[in-house]
Amino acid sequence: MGLWKDIKNLFVGMRITSKHLGRRAITIQYPEEKWTMPERSRGIVVLLSDKETGELNCTACMLCMKACPTGAIRIVAPRDEATKKRDLKSFDLDFGLCCFCGLCEEACNFSALKMAAKYEFSTINKDDLTWDVKKLQEIGRDVDYVDTRKKKAEPKPAVKPAVTDTPVATAPAPAAQSEQKGETS
Amino acid sequence: MSPILASGELILVFRWLHEKLVSTGLSPLWVELITYTVLAVGMFALLAVIALFLVWWERKISAHIQQRFGPMRVGWHGWYQTIMDAIKLLQKEDVRVDTRDRGVFFWAPVICFVAAFAAYVVIPFGDGLIVADLNIGILYVMAVTTFTIISLLMAGWGSNNKYALLGGMRSAAQVVSYEVPMILSILTVVLFAGSLSMGQIVASQQGHGIFNWFIFRVPFGPLAFITYLITATAESNRTPFDIPEAEQELVAGYNVEYSGMKFAMFFLAEFVNMFTVSAIATTLFLGGWNGPFMPSWIWFLLKTLGVVFILMIFRWTFPRLRVDQLMEFAWKFLVPLTFANLILAAWMKYAKWYW
Ligand code: SF4
Ligand code: SF4
């Protein structure tokens, strides 16, 4: 009968809500508790430094600036005519413009740029969203990454390691592999 | 001597106050006035605390049903969140629309507040913890709580706002229709208790453990309890009968134009009303303050909060009824059902088929 079914359904609904009442909340108390973000989450863009020397990996090739769809990256790097090299004068990243697409990370060939699993950079001032090279480097210091650059001093390995891939932290480091090969050969 | 009942710890305080006042040689009128003022202030404080607690509790329950935390910031699990909210509302600007009906707009929240609190004159909080055991107790409660409808209608009319007016009208229509089955299910109890006085109704449920409670007097008792619970939900304008304040249709219903303390008065009155209907359910069906081992007022509070809890689970489980369905449910289903129940109970009483 329809009526009995309806009445039964009322109790089914109440049983479900009561069951949920006893469960633990799935939300967390944000400033005290935080999620551990996934390794490859696209948080803020950081500049990476060399693991040994601590120097910036960036060669000022400006590929990231060209790849950026929103024009969030502004690089000033005049070219030294004698050495044919660019000198990185400033690297400004406006997070107010950044849409966290990750195209800059894909464009960079020198393991110099990465989207870190960090997300707390809110400010009360709009201008503070533009980060300069120092700030970007500092926040990137403790970010783990896979160095895919070719090492200059060492002899070339037999098999070229892939250099254009996005660095995947969990994969074994191709650079380390090439080093070993260089030693054995 | 005032009609304050004879026993109970709290009553001793008032007895003492009464005697002290008499010994100072004041005229009896003043003695009564002062005693009852103290009593009224005490009741007001108690009910304000209960209402604030219920607001917090409701937020907590709704949050946990939705697997959230609810208020967590102020105090342990946000226990004084509602106090802070009340303080915030007190500080808020009292926005008044220019097109309002001045007198009506001002008095509506006051009447709502007073009507909600006035019912507590006859609610027995425990053994002897009753302000005045009127011989028409339950009738008085029904009469006084009905004032709420007038205040809602006044709020709707006085705001001069179509949403508020619609909310007020709906609420009046709803409460008036649900009053009928409510009174019919209460009458079933009154018939067996043989009295309208709350004290007598509680007394008639004593003995035989819990089996003298009216909810366990099959078949009419449980049925009357269920119909009472349904109508009580409708009376206190809660989901699934919350069309007077259906947010999706009416913004907020009758209290759209209210802000600051006036809004807080409506809000608190709503929760006091919820406690009232639960307290009446406890008194009429669940044996009132009767219970072993613990003080009577603890039993009363436990049972009442249990009923409140059921009402809260209702609210966060069921979807809202449509206006026409609501009226249909009241007039075509509840009224005949409660009538049949009343006739059955009367017949059983006549045939002495009860204990
Ligand atoms: S993530 Fe996208 S928008 Fe942001 S800086 Fe990189 S390329 Fe530009
Ligand atoms: S693409 Fe990489 S190396 Fe080139 S400018 Fe950008 S960060 Fe520097």
List keywords for this structure.
heterodimer, A: 185 residues, alpha+beta, Alpha-Beta Plaits, three-stranded antiparallel β-sheet, two-stranded antiparallel ribbon, elongated, disordered C terminus, B: 355 residues, mainly alpha, 13 helices, disordered N terminus, binds iron/sulfur cluster
Describe this structure in words.
- The complex is a heterodimer of chains A (185) and B (355).
- Chain A is α+β, with helices and mostly antiparallel strands.
- Chain A has a domain at 42-144: Alpha-Beta Plaits.
- Helix content of chain A is 27%, strand content 11%.
- Chain A has five helices and seven strands, in the order H-E-H-E-E-E-E-H-E-E-H-H.
- In chain A, the strands form three sheets. A three-stranded antiparallel β-sheet of chain A has the order 2-5-7.
- In chain A, strand 3 (79-80) and strand 4 form a beta hairpin.
- By secondary structure, chain B is mainly α.
- Chain B folds into two domains: 1-83; 92-350, no CATH class.
- Helices cover 67% and strands 0% of the residues of chain B.
- The longest helix of chain B is centred in the first third of the chain and has 38 residues, at 28-65.
- Mean pLDDT of chain B is 82; it is low at 1-8.
- The interface between A and B is medium-sized, with 14 and 14 residues.
- The structure holds iron/sulfur cluster (2 copies).
- One iron/sulfur cluster (SF4) is lined by residues 45, 67-70, 72-73, 93, 98-104 of chain A.
- One iron/sulfur cluster binds at residues 45, 67-70, 72-73, 93, 98-104 of chain A.
